[in-house]
Write a structure and sequence with these properties.
By secondary structure, the chain is α/β, with parallel strands linked by helices. It has twelve helices and 28 strands. Helix 6 crosses helix 7 and helix 7 packs across helix 10.
Length: about 525
């Protein structure tokens, strides 16, 4: 390669990758320099200028530097990288002496052979950070690795989609392609390259400094792609995909600062089942086509939604998610909303009650008993507010106002399911304070009447396992298995089993003044 052809090429220097933006002199020094814009701007020293002269421009004010050509690697072709990565020479000795124990033995009849790992039958090839920059001799990839279905070219020195297409067009079985941490110049005619990606189903282009406009421009190349991973790019505004990306079932947009009002632009992708919007600064989402309690026409196929590490702080956002017709899995960890309640377990129960179709929340399955407990507790928690808003136990008199129904769109569904809560069951939400968390509980041993009742104040957030540990010490019963049930004033003739050691007391709606019965075998 002639140096004057280096502009736009990718280089590696001391483990850092960048793009050549300038080739030529930098007075007063002699000789030729490469002006490089680094992928990581902290590697650079300036914005492409020196002594007041602007030789090239960078996106970041300290993203550029000048290096001598001999210090920069322009990479290797695919086949060379493949051989360096996969072909291992194994030498076997010929007639020479080998020492075994204390005796010297002469091995005769072995020829010196160099064995190489066969690459012809590989279906998965990993060339991550192997400085691949070109396809190599014509048709050599086709002849060397004809059966590749999955290819990882992350962190290499590929300079354009045209260079990449020259590689992939020789891989007729390619279905999965990983290109993260590359910087590919955008093709002027991406549709002309579509044959090079005709069988592609999974495409990962994380951390490639792409905007959404660039993604849509490139999308005609990927007509059959079903899974598209775009984490950690420069995506800020989403636009509607027109006649592209229509086969997508999975879309990962995590770790991009996306304007929330543009999220609905992708809501009519007909097959989209899994959407990752974690770490996108999302605080609001609204489906204004229908009121609360109805199902939206947006995201019709969406089953899984990831919203971890965002700025969601209001329950109305969760109410909007209830409008999604197919949503069964939600991950909403590390959002401010969860810390508005007494503890994370309480927040989980409220979220379950507000989202009627959910089967998996934050990677934990929602079992039928947990849903029932969460929904019953929700009815009690907001029952007083329901009554004040015009709610009533008799259906013909039950007319809660618009404000209440906007805040609790599932409440009427829940009381139709379980019946209206009795006034004696209702409890006000109290401000967060330790004294309001403590429950006075009496422990009884019905099968050992000589033991006196024990009264303790315990936090409602205390898990059953710790309660049992406390009882082992109080009752001096080490090493036995305890079985717990409880009774309350509202259901004095019924014992409710406490059967999950990892749930808090409040999961079972244990309240102040209740009795816990302790048995052991």
């Amino acid at each position: 390669m002639m140096l004057e052809e280096a502009v736009g090429r990718r280089v590696c220097c001391d483990g850092e990758r960048g793009t050549v933006r300038y080739v030529g002199p930098v007075p007063p020094t002699a000789g030729v320099w490469l002006g490089v814009e680094w992928d990581h701007p902290e590697r650079g020293k300036h914005d492409g200028s020196h002594d007041g002269v602007q030789y090239f421009t960078c996106r970041h004010p300290t993203g550029g530097s000048f290096v001598r050509p001999q210090k920069a690697s322009f990479g290797v072709d695919y086949v060379t990288a493949l051989k360096q990565r996969y072909e291992v020479e194994i030498e076997e000795v010929t007639a020479e002496e080998m020492k075994i124990s204390s005796k010297t033995v002469v091995m005769v009849g072995f020829e010196k052979v160099k064995k190489k790992q066969s690459v012809e039958n590989l279906t998965e090839v990993g060339l991550r950070r192997c400085e691949v920059s070109a396809p190599g001799p014509e048709n050599e990839i086709r002849n060397t690795t004809p059966f590749v279905q999955s290819l990882d070219l992350s962190g290499n020195l590929l300079s354009s989609w045209e260079v990449l297409a020259a590689i992939t067009e020789q891989l007729k079985s390619l279905q999965e392609l990983h290109l993260s941490h590359n910087r590919l110049s955008i093709s002027s005619d991406p549709g002309a390259l579509s044959s090079a990606f005709s069988r592609l189903r999974v495409l990962s282009i994380n951390s490639c400094a792409l905007t959404w406009t660039q993604v849509l421009h490139c999308a005609p190349m990927w007509q059959q792609v079903e899974e598209l991973y775009l984490a950690d790019n420069n995506i800020t505004q989403l636009l509607k995909p027109e006649h592209v990306l229509q086969a997508l079932t999975v879309l990962d947009l995590s770790n991009n600062r996306i304007a929330p009002e543009t999220v609905l632009e992708i809501s009519h992708l007909p097959r989209l089942e899994r959407l990752n919007l974690s770490s996108t600064t999302l605080s609001e989402i609204e489906f204004s086509d229908v009121p609360g309690g109805k199902k939206t026409t947006f995201f019709l196929a969406l089953k899984e939604l990831l919203l971890d590490d965002n700025n969601i702080s209001e329950w109305r956002v969760v109410n909007e998610l209830e409008k999604l017709p197919s949503l069964v899995y939600l991950s909403c960890r590390r959002n401010p909303l969860l810390h508005k309640e007494k503890n994370l377990e309480t927040a989980r129960q409220i979220m379950i009650a507000r989202l009627g179709q959910l089967e998996l929340l934050d990677m934990r399955q929602i079992l039928s008993d947990e849903r029932r407990g969460a929904e019953l507790d929700y009815c009690k928690m907001f029952g007083s507010a329901w009554l004040r808003a015009g709610g009533h136990g008799e259906a013909e008199k039950n007319h809660p106002n618009t404000d209440f129904m906007t805040e609790h769109p599932r409440y009427l569904t829940l009381i139709q399911k379980y019946g209206a809560p009795d006034e004696g069951e209702l409890r006000e939400q109290k401000p967060f304070a330790l004294k309001n968390q403590l429950l006075t509980i009496t422990f009884l041993c019905p099968e050992d009447l000589e033991r006196k009742p024990i009264e303790k104040k315990l936090p409602g957030s205390m898990i059953v396992q710790k309660v049992k540990g406390l009882l082992h010490r109080l009752l001096k019963l080490p090493g036995v298995e305890l079985k717990l049930t409880y009774t309350c004033a509202k259901m004095a003739d019924r014992e409710i089993e406490i059967d999950n050691d990892l749930k808090p007391l409040q999961f079972y709606s244990v309240e102040d003044g209740d009795k816990i019965l302790v048995r052991w075998s």
